[in-house]
Specification:
Elements lengths: L1 E6 L17 E15 L5 E5 L4 E11 L4 H9 L9 E9 L5 E9 L9 E2 L5 H7 L9 H12 L10 H9 L3 E3 L4 E3 L1 H7 L4
Helix pairs in contact: 3-5
Length: 197
Protein backbone atom coordinates (compact mmCIF):
# COMPACT_ATOMS: atom_id res chain seq x y z
CA UNK A 1 0.00 0.00 0.00
CA UNK A 2 1.46 3.40 -1.00
CA UNK A 3 1.02 6.34 1.36
CA UNK A 4 2.07 10.00 1.26
CA UNK A 5 3.65 11.16 4.52
CA UNK A 6 4.75 14.73 5.29
CA UNK A 7 7.77 14.74 7.61
CA UNK A 8 9.24 17.59 9.66
CA UNK A 9 10.99 17.90 13.01
CA UNK A 10 11.67 14.55 14.66
CA UNK A 11 10.53 12.77 11.46
CA UNK A 12 13.05 14.61 9.27
CA UNK A 13 16.17 12.91 7.91
CA UNK A 14 18.83 12.27 10.59
CA UNK A 15 16.27 12.89 13.34
CA UNK A 16 15.04 10.39 15.93
CA UNK A 17 11.85 9.10 14.23
CA UNK A 18 13.10 8.97 10.64
CA UNK A 19 14.65 5.53 11.00
CA UNK A 20 11.22 4.03 11.78
CA UNK A 21 10.10 4.48 8.17
CA UNK A 22 13.29 5.13 6.16
CA UNK A 23 13.30 1.60 4.76
CA UNK A 24 9.80 2.12 3.33
CA UNK A 25 10.56 5.27 1.29
CA UNK A 26 10.00 4.93 -2.46
CA UNK A 27 10.19 8.64 -3.37
CA UNK A 28 10.75 12.01 -1.71
CA UNK A 29 10.55 15.69 -2.55
CA UNK A 30 10.49 18.99 -0.66
CA UNK A 31 7.07 20.18 0.44
CA UNK A 32 5.28 22.78 2.53
CA UNK A 33 2.16 22.83 4.67
CA UNK A 34 0.35 25.81 6.17
CA UNK A 35 0.23 26.11 9.92
CA UNK A 36 1.82 27.38 13.11
CA UNK A 37 4.95 25.65 14.39
CA UNK A 38 5.50 25.46 18.14
CA UNK A 39 8.45 24.28 20.18
CA UNK A 40 7.70 21.59 22.73
CA UNK A 41 9.36 21.86 26.14
CA UNK A 42 11.72 19.03 25.14
CA UNK A 43 12.84 21.07 22.12
CA UNK A 44 11.18 19.39 19.14
CA UNK A 45 8.77 21.23 16.86
CA UNK A 46 5.09 20.39 16.51
CA UNK A 47 2.69 21.94 13.99
CA UNK A 48 -0.92 23.01 14.27
CA UNK A 49 -2.25 23.26 10.70
CA UNK A 50 -4.35 26.17 9.50
CA UNK A 51 -4.82 27.75 6.10
CA UNK A 52 -3.60 31.23 6.98
CA UNK A 53 -0.47 30.10 8.80
CA UNK A 54 3.22 30.05 7.96
CA UNK A 55 4.67 27.83 5.26
CA UNK A 56 6.15 24.93 7.22
CA UNK A 57 8.95 23.25 5.32
CA UNK A 58 9.31 19.48 5.29
CA UNK A 59 9.68 16.50 3.00
CA UNK A 60 6.88 14.65 1.27
CA UNK A 61 7.66 10.93 1.31
CA UNK A 62 5.96 8.23 -0.68
CA UNK A 63 5.99 5.10 1.47
CA UNK A 64 5.25 1.50 0.67
CA UNK A 65 3.66 0.56 3.97
CA UNK A 66 2.38 -2.63 5.55
CA UNK A 67 -1.14 -2.61 7.01
CA UNK A 68 0.19 -2.20 10.56
CA UNK A 69 2.41 0.80 9.78
CA UNK A 70 0.20 3.61 11.10
CA UNK A 71 -0.77 1.78 14.28
CA UNK A 72 2.93 1.19 15.02
CA UNK A 73 3.72 4.86 14.35
CA UNK A 74 0.75 5.97 16.49
CA UNK A 75 1.96 3.89 19.42
CA UNK A 76 5.51 5.20 19.07
CA UNK A 77 4.48 8.87 19.09
CA UNK A 78 1.69 8.48 21.66
CA UNK A 79 -1.44 8.88 19.51
CA UNK A 80 -4.41 7.36 21.33
CA UNK A 81 -8.01 7.97 20.19
CA UNK A 82 -9.38 6.81 23.56
CA UNK A 83 -7.13 9.05 25.68
CA UNK A 84 -6.03 11.86 23.35
CA UNK A 85 -2.47 13.00 23.97
CA UNK A 86 -0.24 15.71 22.62
CA UNK A 87 -0.09 14.34 19.06
CA UNK A 88 -2.73 13.54 16.46
CA UNK A 89 -2.40 11.89 13.07
CA UNK A 90 -4.25 13.80 10.37
CA UNK A 91 -4.13 14.75 6.71
CA UNK A 92 -3.40 18.13 5.16
CA UNK A 93 -2.70 19.78 1.84
CA UNK A 94 0.98 19.74 0.89
CA UNK A 95 2.37 22.08 -1.75
CA UNK A 96 5.36 20.65 -3.59
CA UNK A 97 6.00 23.42 -6.13
CA UNK A 98 4.04 26.18 -7.83
CA UNK A 99 1.86 23.73 -9.73
CA UNK A 100 1.54 20.51 -7.73
CA UNK A 101 -0.13 19.77 -4.43
CA UNK A 102 -1.40 16.65 -2.73
CA UNK A 103 -3.04 15.43 0.45
CA UNK A 104 -0.67 13.68 2.86
CA UNK A 105 -0.67 12.21 6.34
CA UNK A 106 1.27 14.07 9.04
CA UNK A 107 1.63 14.12 12.82
CA UNK A 108 0.73 17.42 14.47
CA UNK A 109 -0.47 19.11 17.61
CA UNK A 110 -3.74 17.99 19.16
CA UNK A 111 -5.84 21.23 19.24
CA UNK A 112 -7.25 20.16 22.62
CA UNK A 113 -3.75 20.58 24.09
CA UNK A 114 -3.41 24.24 23.14
CA UNK A 115 -4.02 25.19 26.77
CA UNK A 116 -0.45 24.05 27.46
CA UNK A 117 2.36 26.54 27.08
CA UNK A 118 4.21 26.11 23.79
CA UNK A 119 6.58 28.67 22.36
CA UNK A 120 5.66 29.72 18.80
CA UNK A 121 8.48 29.28 16.27
CA UNK A 122 8.84 32.51 14.30
CA UNK A 123 7.96 32.07 10.64
CA UNK A 124 7.63 28.31 11.12
CA UNK A 125 11.41 27.91 10.68
CA UNK A 126 11.80 24.82 12.86
CA UNK A 127 15.21 23.80 11.38
CA UNK A 128 16.77 27.11 12.40
CA UNK A 129 15.12 26.88 15.82
CA UNK A 130 16.47 23.36 16.43
CA UNK A 131 19.95 24.39 15.28
CA UNK A 132 20.06 27.36 17.66
CA UNK A 133 18.75 25.35 20.64
CA UNK A 134 19.07 21.56 20.19
CA UNK A 135 16.37 19.33 21.76
CA UNK A 136 16.99 17.98 25.26
CA UNK A 137 17.52 14.47 23.88
CA UNK A 138 20.66 15.79 22.17
CA UNK A 139 21.89 17.49 25.36
CA UNK A 140 21.45 14.62 27.83
CA UNK A 141 24.03 11.91 28.42
CA UNK A 142 23.34 8.40 27.13
CA UNK A 143 22.98 7.03 30.68
CA UNK A 144 20.29 9.64 31.42
CA UNK A 145 18.39 8.79 28.23
CA UNK A 146 18.71 5.07 29.00
CA UNK A 147 17.14 5.54 32.45
CA UNK A 148 14.29 7.65 31.06
CA UNK A 149 13.63 4.91 28.51
CA UNK A 150 13.59 2.23 31.23
CA UNK A 151 11.17 4.25 33.35
CA UNK A 152 8.86 4.84 30.39
CA UNK A 153 8.74 1.07 29.71
CA UNK A 154 8.12 0.13 33.37
CA UNK A 155 4.73 -1.41 34.12
CA UNK A 156 2.60 -0.62 37.18
CA UNK A 157 4.62 -0.37 40.37
CA UNK A 158 7.72 -1.94 38.84
CA UNK A 159 10.85 -0.55 40.49
CA UNK A 160 13.61 0.45 38.06
CA UNK A 161 17.06 0.36 39.71
CA UNK A 162 19.14 3.52 39.38
CA UNK A 163 22.55 4.98 40.09
CA UNK A 164 22.44 7.84 42.57
CA UNK A 165 24.24 10.34 40.32
CA UNK A 166 21.78 9.64 37.46
CA UNK A 167 18.83 9.97 39.86
CA UNK A 168 20.11 13.30 41.23
CA UNK A 169 20.85 14.72 37.77
CA UNK A 170 17.38 13.83 36.41
CA UNK A 171 15.69 15.15 39.57
CA UNK A 172 17.55 18.48 39.27
CA UNK A 173 16.42 18.76 35.61
CA UNK A 174 12.85 17.96 36.73
CA UNK A 175 12.65 14.95 34.42
CA UNK A 176 11.81 12.49 37.20
CA UNK A 177 10.02 12.76 40.53
CA UNK A 178 9.88 10.65 43.67
CA UNK A 179 6.55 8.85 43.71
CA UNK A 180 6.25 7.00 46.99
CA UNK A 181 9.92 6.00 47.21
CA UNK A 182 10.17 5.07 43.56
CA UNK A 183 11.17 7.32 40.67
CA UNK A 184 8.60 8.22 38.01
CA UNK A 185 8.74 10.45 34.96
CA UNK A 186 7.45 14.00 35.20
CA UNK A 187 5.34 15.32 32.31
CA UNK A 188 8.53 16.68 30.71
CA UNK A 189 10.22 13.30 31.19
CA UNK A 190 7.23 11.62 29.54
CA UNK A 191 7.45 14.07 26.65
CA UNK A 192 11.15 13.27 26.18
CA UNK A 193 10.41 9.52 26.23
CA UNK A 194 8.39 9.93 23.00
CA UNK A 195 11.60 10.96 21.24
CA UNK A 196 13.83 8.09 22.32
CA UNK A 197 14.64 5.24 19.93
Amino acid sequence: MHQSFFAYGSFAEKQVHHSKFSGLITDSKPGFMRGQAYRLRCGYPIVLPHDGGDLIEGVLYELKTPESFWSIMDEMIGVDPVQPGLWVRDTTLIRCDHLSQTIATFYGLNPQKMNQVFRPIKGGRWQEDMFQAPPLTQQLEERHLDYIKKLSNAKGRELVPYKLDVYRALMSMELIKDKGRRPALTSLGQEISLFLQ
